[in-house]
From TrEMBL:
Protein name, as recorded: Citrate synthase
Known catalytic reactions: oxaloacetate + acetyl-CoA + H2O = citrate + CoA + H(+)
Active site: H305, D362
NCBIfam families found in the cross-reference section: cit_synth_I, PRK05614.1
Pathway: Carbohydrate metabolism; tricarboxylic acid cycle; isocitrate from oxaloacetate: step 1/2
Organism: Novosphingobium fluoreni
One Gene Ontology MF term: citrate synthase activity
Keywords: Acyltransferase, Membrane, Transferase, Transmembrane, Transmembrane helix, Tricarboxylic acid cycle
SUPFAM superfamilies, per the entry: Citrate synthase
Gene Ontology, cellular component aspect: cytoplasm
Amino acid sequence: MANQAKLTTAGKEFEYPILKGSVGPDVIDIRKLYGQTGQFTFDPGFTSTAACESALTYIDGDEGVLLHRGYPIGQLAEQSSFMEVCYLLLNGELPSGDELETFSTTITRHTMLHEQLATFYRGFRRDAHPMAIMCGVVGALSAFYHDSTDIADPEHRKISSHRLIAKMPTIAAMAYKYSVGQPFLYPDNKLSYTGNFLRMTFGVPAEEYEVIPAVEKAMDRIFILHADHEQNASTSTVRLAGSSGANPFACIAAGIACLWGPAHGGANEAALNMLKEIGTPDKIPHYIERAKDKNDPFRLMGFGHRVYKNYDPRATVMQSTVREVFEALKVDDPLFETALRLEEIALNDPYFVEKKLFPNVDFYSGIILSAIGFPTTMFTVLFALARTVGWVAQWNEMISDPGQKIGRPRQLYTGPTQRDYVAIDKR
Ligand code: CMC
């Protein structure tokens, strides 16, 4: 049969079904492999492993395509809003006008935090990294919202998902306020999701905060660009944590912890720090040489991707958004010139060409966020805020799947074989 893969091992031939998705590579269904052959597959880093079935997001890394529920990211970034993308990811279809209004109102009404949570912030040092605060505070939500933690109940899952999406901007803004020693601001229901976040971050109680529409639009677009990205490391972490039946807030806290790493969400912070270190375009060749040197741990941050072997479509939108924000705020940042030049030099260098290393979403985002006024330590927090919808949508999809099992990878054991314990005086 054509839709079977043959495997010859241990002197026998086995057949495994080939499954087809709606688009993208077929997968060989090896779920019976161990039972039949007594052997595992070996794929550290999951470079050839589809860990789940999903109908949320599709990436064609060779073509630089990213679709959410079938819609291209470029169209969503240009024509949609973050609230609409959240609805789309959670429900599978774009909302009608009424559905969007009801959804936005629901999210708005969940933006406040339990008052007691403010005391958690006060336990952190003022110089704590806001991602450390996010991990702690989001994990602590598990101790607050007991009325919706039956993960087998779809209504409970929906309420938890709405709470997480709604409260994340409040949590993120409070992390920032705490670090600069300013009072926390309560959400303002008159504002949009993104406008409210900007006000809670940059507003002060003594003055009326005016949301600049162009900045609100750019920020909303940045949220759209980060909303979901298939089975990346933090999403897989959320799925793995959730597969044991863990509390949803604890699962998202696990996702935040994973996102923090510089190879993942932490790359936006690292990319801007790198651009600052490079400084002027004349220093670029030195850093390009360092990035190519196998004995030097330096890498071009914001460059390369496990899946994209072409320009990351999110980076394209990000690059054009830099110019819009500069124009709206009447600012300029010489680091943008350095970034453009660095991209140009790298894309013409055989090392980067052969390895198919292109700018990713994080390469230009830091320049925009910095122009808006965020310190670098907040960059990954913004990523976490926006990715929360992807995490909860993926978590919900997994829990809704009747065939869902606890995630339990196996290993190739290379340690000592069984041996007898030796008393301490005999060693
Ligand atoms: N600078 C220099 N060389 C690189 C880079 C880079 N940024 N990225 C990959 N390479 C080289 C790497 O040294 C390796 O070379 P060789 O084959 O000779 O050993 C080859 O390219 C393949 O790299 P890899 O590390 O095996 O690839 P991976 O798929 O495991 O890693 C990555 C992907 C994103 C972790 C990596 O490209 C990287 O570290 N990039 C910088 C960090 C970054 O920008 N991360 C953000 C990713 S996008 C946002 C997100 O999804 O979180």
